[in-house]
Amino acid sequence: MSNSRLLWSSMTVTAALMLSACSQPANETADTNADAPAAETAGKTIRIATEGAYPPFNYTNADGSLGGFDIDVANALCEQMQADCEIVAQEWDGIIPGLLAQKYDAVIAGMSITAERQEKVDFSEPYFANTMVWLTKTDGSFDPTSIENLTLGGQRSTTPGAYLQDNYEGKDGNTVQLYDNYDNAYLDLKSGRSDAVLAEKVSAKSWLADNTEGFGIVGDEIDNDDNIAIAMRKGDSLKEDFNKALSEIRSNGELARLEQINFSQ
Asked: Which end of the chain is more exposed for a tag (fewer CB within 10 A), N or C?
Protein backbone atom coordinates (compact mmCIF):
# COMPACT_ATOMS: atom_id res chain seq x y z
CA MET A 1 0.00 0.00 0.00
CA SER A 2 1.33 3.41 -0.88
CA ASN A 3 2.20 5.79 1.93
CA SER A 4 -0.06 8.43 0.40
CA ARG A 5 -3.10 6.18 0.69
CA LEU A 6 -2.27 5.34 4.29
CA LEU A 7 -1.63 8.91 5.30
CA TRP A 8 -4.82 9.98 3.54
CA SER A 9 -6.70 7.38 5.62
CA SER A 10 -5.33 8.94 8.79
CA MET A 11 -5.96 12.47 7.51
CA THR A 12 -9.56 11.60 6.67
CA VAL A 13 -10.21 10.26 10.15
CA THR A 14 -8.37 13.23 11.66
CA ALA A 15 -10.49 15.71 9.74
CA ALA A 16 -13.68 14.05 10.93
CA LEU A 17 -12.53 14.18 14.52
CA MET A 18 -11.56 17.86 14.22
CA LEU A 19 -15.01 18.72 12.93
CA SER A 20 -16.55 16.79 15.82
CA ALA A 21 -14.35 18.62 18.31
CA CYS A 22 -15.36 22.00 16.88
CA SER A 23 -19.00 21.21 17.61
CA GLN A 24 -18.35 20.65 21.33
CA PRO A 25 -19.21 23.33 23.87
CA ALA A 26 -16.20 25.37 24.95
CA ASN A 27 -16.26 24.06 28.53
CA GLU A 28 -16.13 20.43 27.32
CA THR A 29 -13.19 21.14 25.03
CA ALA A 30 -11.29 22.95 27.76
CA ASP A 31 -11.70 20.03 30.14
CA THR A 32 -10.10 17.57 27.72
CA ASN A 33 -6.40 17.04 28.36
CA ALA A 34 -5.15 14.34 26.00
CA ASP A 35 -1.65 14.52 27.50
CA ALA A 36 -2.85 13.37 30.92
CA PRO A 37 -3.67 9.69 31.45
CA ALA A 38 -7.22 8.86 32.48
CA ALA A 39 -7.44 8.22 36.23
CA GLU A 40 -9.27 4.96 35.52
CA THR A 41 -6.44 3.53 33.39
CA ALA A 42 -3.22 4.79 35.01
CA GLY A 43 -1.55 1.73 36.51
CA LYS A 44 -4.47 -0.51 35.56
CA THR A 45 -3.98 -3.85 33.78
CA ILE A 46 -5.92 -4.04 30.51
CA ARG A 47 -6.18 -7.34 28.64
CA ILE A 48 -6.33 -6.95 24.87
CA ALA A 49 -7.11 -9.69 22.34
CA THR A 50 -5.83 -9.89 18.78
CA GLU A 51 -6.01 -12.66 16.19
CA GLY A 52 -2.32 -13.24 15.59
CA ALA A 53 -3.01 -14.50 12.05
CA TYR A 54 -3.81 -11.42 9.97
CA PRO A 55 -0.55 -9.86 8.72
CA PRO A 56 0.43 -7.08 8.55
CA PHE A 57 -2.19 -6.07 11.14
CA ASN A 58 -1.29 -8.86 13.54
CA TYR A 59 0.74 -12.06 13.35
CA THR A 60 2.53 -14.61 15.49
CA ASN A 61 6.32 -14.73 15.30
CA ALA A 62 8.32 -17.96 15.31
CA ASP A 63 9.05 -17.52 19.01
CA GLY A 64 5.34 -17.19 19.80
CA SER A 65 5.39 -13.43 20.34
CA LEU A 66 2.83 -11.18 18.64
CA GLY A 67 3.68 -8.46 16.14
CA GLY A 68 2.12 -6.15 13.57
CA PHE A 69 0.30 -2.83 13.30
CA ASP A 70 -2.40 -3.73 15.83
CA ILE A 71 0.22 -4.72 18.40
CA ASP A 72 2.14 -1.50 17.86
CA VAL A 73 -1.06 0.56 18.16
CA ALA A 74 -2.08 -1.30 21.33
CA ASN A 75 1.31 -0.68 22.94
CA ALA A 76 1.26 3.00 21.95
CA LEU A 77 -2.21 3.45 23.42
CA CYS A 78 -1.28 1.67 26.64
CA GLU A 79 1.81 3.85 27.01
CA GLN A 80 -0.32 6.94 26.45
CA MET A 81 -2.82 5.78 29.08
CA GLN A 82 -0.02 4.69 31.44
CA ALA A 83 -1.73 1.32 31.65
CA ASP A 84 -0.19 -2.14 31.93
CA CYS A 85 -1.41 -4.13 28.94
CA GLU A 86 -1.46 -7.86 28.31
CA ILE A 87 -2.00 -8.82 24.67
CA VAL A 88 -3.29 -12.32 23.96
CA ALA A 89 -4.08 -14.26 20.78
CA GLN A 90 -7.61 -15.48 20.10
CA GLU A 91 -9.01 -17.25 17.02
CA TRP A 92 -11.11 -14.89 14.94
CA ASP A 93 -14.45 -16.68 15.16
CA GLY A 94 -14.29 -16.63 18.96
CA ILE A 95 -12.88 -13.15 19.44
CA ILE A 96 -16.17 -11.29 20.14
CA PRO A 97 -17.64 -14.15 22.22
CA GLY A 98 -14.44 -14.10 24.29
CA LEU A 99 -14.80 -10.36 24.83
CA LEU A 100 -18.41 -10.75 25.96
CA ALA A 101 -17.35 -13.59 28.27
CA GLN A 102 -14.85 -11.16 29.89
CA LYS A 103 -11.79 -13.17 28.88
CA TYR A 104 -10.25 -9.79 27.96
CA ASP A 105 -11.24 -6.13 28.02
CA ALA A 106 -10.79 -5.02 24.41
CA VAL A 107 -10.14 -6.30 20.90
CA ILE A 108 -7.51 -4.69 18.67
CA ALA A 109 -7.43 -7.03 15.70
CA GLY A 110 -8.05 -5.18 12.45
CA MET A 111 -11.77 -5.37 13.22
CA SER A 112 -14.12 -3.40 10.99
CA ILE A 113 -17.07 -1.48 12.37
CA THR A 114 -20.26 -3.16 11.13
CA ALA A 115 -23.91 -2.76 12.10
CA GLU A 116 -24.07 -6.43 13.15
CA ARG A 117 -21.08 -6.07 15.48
CA GLN A 118 -22.40 -2.79 16.89
CA GLU A 119 -25.41 -4.72 18.21
CA LYS A 120 -23.04 -6.68 20.47
CA VAL A 121 -20.10 -4.36 21.26
CA ASP A 122 -19.06 -0.72 21.40
CA PHE A 123 -16.34 0.64 19.12
CA SER A 124 -13.76 3.36 19.60
CA GLU A 125 -13.10 6.00 16.98
CA PRO A 126 -11.49 4.39 13.89
CA TYR A 127 -7.72 4.05 13.82
CA PHE A 128 -7.47 2.89 10.18
CA ALA A 129 -9.50 2.87 6.95
CA ASN A 130 -9.41 -0.13 4.61
CA THR A 131 -10.11 -0.80 0.94
CA MET A 132 -10.69 -4.20 -0.70
CA VAL A 133 -8.87 -5.66 -3.72
CA TRP A 134 -8.96 -8.74 -5.93
CA LEU A 135 -5.85 -10.89 -5.55
CA THR A 136 -5.40 -13.34 -8.41
CA LYS A 137 -3.13 -14.60 -11.16
CA THR A 138 -1.76 -11.94 -13.50
CA ASP A 139 -2.15 -14.06 -16.64
CA GLY A 140 -5.33 -12.25 -17.68
CA SER A 141 -7.64 -15.14 -16.79
CA PHE A 142 -9.55 -13.07 -14.22
CA ASP A 143 -11.66 -10.08 -15.27
CA PRO A 144 -13.12 -8.21 -12.27
CA THR A 145 -15.77 -6.66 -14.53
CA SER A 146 -17.08 -10.06 -15.64
CA ILE A 147 -17.03 -12.60 -12.82
CA GLU A 148 -18.79 -15.82 -13.87
CA ASN A 149 -18.38 -19.52 -13.04
CA LEU A 150 -15.48 -18.89 -10.67
CA THR A 151 -14.46 -19.95 -7.17
CA LEU A 152 -13.87 -16.87 -5.03
CA GLY A 153 -12.04 -17.01 -1.72
CA GLY A 154 -12.06 -14.86 1.40
CA GLN A 155 -12.04 -14.95 5.19
CA ARG A 156 -15.28 -15.59 7.04
CA SER A 157 -16.67 -13.01 9.45
CA THR A 158 -14.95 -10.15 7.60
CA THR A 159 -16.33 -7.32 5.48
CA PRO A 160 -14.80 -8.76 2.25
CA GLY A 161 -16.30 -12.14 3.16
CA ALA A 162 -19.73 -10.59 3.61
CA TYR A 163 -19.28 -8.66 0.35
CA LEU A 164 -18.54 -11.92 -1.49
CA GLN A 165 -21.61 -13.62 -0.06
CA ASP A 166 -23.89 -10.68 -0.82
CA ASN A 167 -22.71 -10.13 -4.37
CA TYR A 168 -21.45 -13.46 -5.74
CA GLU A 169 -22.65 -16.48 -3.76
CA GLY A 170 -24.83 -18.59 -6.06
CA LYS A 171 -24.91 -15.89 -8.74
CA ASP A 172 -23.70 -16.30 -12.33
CA GLY A 173 -22.37 -19.75 -11.53
CA ASN A 174 -19.92 -18.48 -8.90
CA THR A 175 -18.94 -20.30 -5.70
CA VAL A 176 -17.75 -18.47 -2.58
CA GLN A 177 -15.31 -20.30 -0.32
CA LEU A 178 -14.63 -18.67 3.07
CA TYR A 179 -11.76 -19.70 5.32
CA ASP A 180 -10.81 -19.39 8.98
CA ASN A 181 -7.98 -17.02 8.02
CA TYR A 182 -6.47 -15.39 4.95
CA ASP A 183 -3.40 -17.65 5.01
CA ASN A 184 -5.59 -20.61 4.02
CA ALA A 185 -7.43 -18.55 1.40
CA TYR A 186 -4.10 -17.55 -0.17
CA LEU A 187 -2.86 -21.17 -0.10
CA ASP A 188 -5.88 -22.33 -2.12
CA LEU A 189 -5.37 -19.46 -4.57
CA LYS A 190 -1.73 -20.41 -5.05
CA SER A 191 -2.57 -24.08 -5.50
CA GLY A 192 -5.27 -23.30 -8.08
CA ARG A 193 -8.22 -24.38 -5.94
CA SER A 194 -9.72 -20.89 -6.24
CA ASP A 195 -9.63 -18.25 -8.96
CA ALA A 196 -9.34 -15.09 -6.87
CA VAL A 197 -9.36 -13.86 -3.28
CA LEU A 198 -11.11 -10.69 -2.16
CA ALA A 199 -9.11 -9.21 0.71
CA GLU A 200 -8.19 -5.97 2.42
CA LYS A 201 -5.48 -4.25 0.39
CA VAL A 202 -2.89 -4.26 3.16
CA SER A 203 -3.35 -8.01 3.67
CA ALA A 204 -3.05 -8.70 -0.05
CA LYS A 205 0.06 -6.51 -0.34
CA SER A 206 1.65 -8.28 2.61
CA TRP A 207 1.14 -11.69 0.97
CA LEU A 208 2.40 -10.45 -2.40
CA ALA A 209 5.67 -9.33 -0.83
CA ASP A 210 6.61 -13.03 -0.60
CA ASN A 211 4.62 -14.28 -3.60
CA THR A 212 5.41 -11.89 -6.43
CA GLU A 213 5.71 -14.45 -9.21
CA GLY A 214 2.50 -14.79 -11.22
CA PHE A 215 0.15 -13.08 -8.75
CA GLY A 216 -0.99 -9.52 -8.24
CA ILE A 217 -3.83 -7.12 -7.52
CA VAL A 218 -6.17 -6.93 -10.50
CA GLY A 219 -8.70 -4.16 -11.07
CA ASP A 220 -9.55 -1.12 -9.01
CA GLU A 221 -9.67 -0.87 -5.24
CA ILE A 222 -13.16 -1.24 -3.77
CA ASP A 223 -13.94 1.41 -1.17
CA ASN A 224 -16.73 0.05 1.01
CA ASP A 225 -16.35 2.56 3.86
CA ASP A 226 -14.47 0.00 5.94
CA ASN A 227 -13.24 1.58 9.17
CA ILE A 228 -11.21 -0.35 11.75
CA ALA A 229 -11.58 0.33 15.45
CA ILE A 230 -11.19 -1.10 18.96
CA ALA A 231 -14.06 -3.25 20.26
CA MET A 232 -15.18 -3.21 23.90
CA ARG A 233 -18.16 -4.44 25.87
CA LYS A 234 -21.27 -2.26 25.77
CA GLY A 235 -21.13 0.70 28.12
CA ASP A 236 -17.48 0.17 29.14
CA SER A 237 -15.75 3.41 30.18
CA LEU A 238 -12.64 2.16 28.35
CA LYS A 239 -14.20 3.53 25.18
CA GLU A 240 -13.63 7.12 26.35
CA ASP A 241 -10.13 6.29 27.57
CA PHE A 242 -9.12 4.68 24.28
CA ASN A 243 -10.61 7.57 22.29
CA LYS A 244 -8.57 10.11 24.29
CA ALA A 245 -5.40 8.10 23.76
CA LEU A 246 -6.15 7.64 20.05
CA SER A 247 -6.62 11.39 19.65
CA GLU A 248 -3.22 11.99 21.19
CA ILE A 249 -1.21 9.46 19.16
CA ARG A 250 -2.93 10.73 16.02
CA SER A 251 -2.16 14.40 16.75
CA ASN A 252 1.47 13.76 17.73
CA GLY A 253 2.13 11.75 14.55
CA GLU A 254 2.70 8.39 16.24
CA LEU A 255 -0.23 6.68 14.49
CA ALA A 256 0.99 7.78 11.04
CA ARG A 257 4.51 6.63 11.94
CA LEU A 258 3.23 3.17 12.88
CA GLU A 259 1.28 2.97 9.60
CA GLN A 260 4.43 3.75 7.64
CA ILE A 261 6.50 1.18 9.54
CA ASN A 262 3.97 -1.61 9.02
CA PHE A 263 2.52 -0.86 5.59
CA SER A 264 5.24 0.87 3.54
CA GLN A 265 6.04 -1.80 1.00
From this structure: C
